[in-house]
Amino acid sequence: MGSIVIRSAEIIDATSDLNGAIRSILIEDGVIKKISEKELSADTVIDGKGLKVSIGWMDMRVTTGDPGHEYKEDLHSVCKAAMQGGFTAIAVLPNTTPPMQTKESVEYIKSKTREKLVDVFPIASLTINNKGEELTEILDMNASGAVGFSDGVKPIWHSDLLLRALLYMQPINAQLIVHAEDKYLSQGGQMNEGKTSTMLGLKGIPKLSEQIIVERDLTILEYTGGKIHFAHISSPKSLELIKDAKRRGLKVTCDIASYQLALDDTLLTSFDSNLKVNPPLRSKRDIDTFWKYINDGTIDAIVSDHIPQDTESKQLEFDQADFGMIGLETMFSVANTYNSKVELVKLIEKITVAPRNILGLEVPVIKEGAKANLTVFDTEQEWILSEKDLRSKSVNTPFIGKKLKGRPVAVINNKQVTRVQ
Q1: Which regions in the chain score pLDDT beneath 70?
Q2: Pairing assessment for the beta strands 191-192 and 176-178 based on DSSP bridges
Q3: φ, ψ for residue 80 (rounded to 5)?
Q4: What pLDDT does residue 421 have?
Q5: For residue 31, which of 4, 60, 69, 68 has the smallest C-alpha distance?
Q6: CB–CB of 408/336 below 8 Å?
Q7: Strand 31-36 to strand 22-28: parallel, antiparallel, or no bridges (unpaired)?
Q8: Residues catalogued as catalytic
Q9: Do 125 and 236 belong together in one domain?
Q10: Does residue 226 lie within any of the structural domains?
């Protein structure tokens, strides 16, 4: 690796006394050797003037196709996409073929990514084949390194199974992650239920589909104890319920996809299947509410909700196309571009400290003697996303050709450094 210096960058870290300070950071053999107000020298110099540096970013909701659908995304390409997006850590969902539901499958993820700059953490299947009918070997997979349990993009429809899972996971303090959706209320739905869906003649997915499951799960959580994390929440009513549950002392957290903070359902008049996601894009009014809940701490983390799809899955009639968009390369840029209400230090906390706390992982620190796990980034640079900026095997994003503001410059972790631009 040699020695590296990040010269004269502003530190953005809510947990550090150096937050807001402009410093040079010298890294030798993967360790922060010196933090100084003076300009330092090294084998490799990253000119940080006008740039920011934080602890390495983490995305806690990433789908890959490895194993089973490597042509959409494999573990190598997803790590390249993560670095391009400024991430030094990701957590991957269990919706593979076969699903990640044995200790061997957890170990496969870990062994295949062991030498990467990006730390890859497995979120294992809660139920066999993600069908929501029978619990997996949770204890074995927890011992093998699973950082959470979920059926990923599929809902936990069986309320008794949810109850048993919460009880079973308490002794090991395991994190349950749920996709809140009543599959009967959303069945056949293509987009947000509202004026636009009516105008386009597309079956809508009502917010009620999410809200009713959030309410059910919180009621069961209050009964059993334990903890629940709600993934990619998309309803203001759901967030009201979660805020109230937090106030009452329940161990509940939630995240939101960055594209939900930027895109609304009126854009679907284009019938661009890259805008077809689940939960669906909501209204402009909802987006304003989401930012409010980020500011007050109800929304704990921001995620990419990266779901790679090949062209055969997307270049179809809208109602035939699969759900999902990629987002690793654009997650920060999208949130930064559309943010007008949240301080940068709070926004960065949502993609650094919060995801690791939710998953029970060690949070990196910026101090002398600590392992260097850092992201260097620019908040002001304006740029237009093109396919050549993508490192994912898939290109299913509606942001190609769009002007964005802010992007990562370099990532440093595990004695490795990669410049993004």
Answers
A1: none
A2: unpaired
A3: -65, -40
A4: 74
A5: 4
A6: no
A7: antiparallel
A8: 305
A9: yes
A10: yes
Domain that holds residue 410: 1-55+364-376+405-421
Residue 238: phi and psi, rounded to 5, are -60, -40
Rg (CA), the chain: 21
Q: What is the tally of structural domains in the chain?
A: 2
pLDDT score for 340: 85
Q: Are 54 and 346 in contact (CB under 8 A)?
A: no
Domain co-membership, 158 together with 267: yes
Q: How far apart are CA 14 and CA 20, in angstroms?
A: 9
Identify whether the C-beta of residue 254 lies closer than 8 Å to the C-beta of residue 221: no
pTM beyond 0.90: the answer is yes
**What rounded mean pLDDT belongs to the chain?**
97
149 with 247, same domain: the answer is: yes
| Token pair of 223 as six digits | 């009964």
CA-based nearest residue to 407, from 329, 346, 317: 329
Supply the DSSP string of 19-30, one letter for each residue: TT-EEEEEEETT
318 and 336 together in one domain: yes
Residue 391 domain flag:
no
* Strand extents, DSSP E, 265-308: 301-303
3-state secondary structure of 297: coil
Question: What CATH number does the domain containing 163 carry?
Answer: 3.20.20.140
CA distances, 88 to each of 211, 325, 328, 333 (Å): 33, 21, 11, 16
How many whole angstroms separate alpha carbon 20 and alpha carbon 115?
33
User: Are 200 and 152 found together in one domain?
Assistant: yes
The three-class DSSP label of residue 120 is strand
244: helix, strand or coil? helix
41 lies in some domain: yes
In this predicted structure, what is the pLDDT of residue 178? 98
Residues 6, 141, single domain; the answer is: no
In this prediction, residue 380 carries a pLDDT of: 97
Q: Per the structure block, which two tokens stand in for 214?
A: 């959030």
**Residues 307 and 412 grouped into a single domain:** no
Pairing of β 191-192 and β 119-125: unpaired
Q: Is residue 34 part of a domain?
A: yes
The answer to whether residues 7 and 150 belong to one domain is no
pLDDT at 336: 98
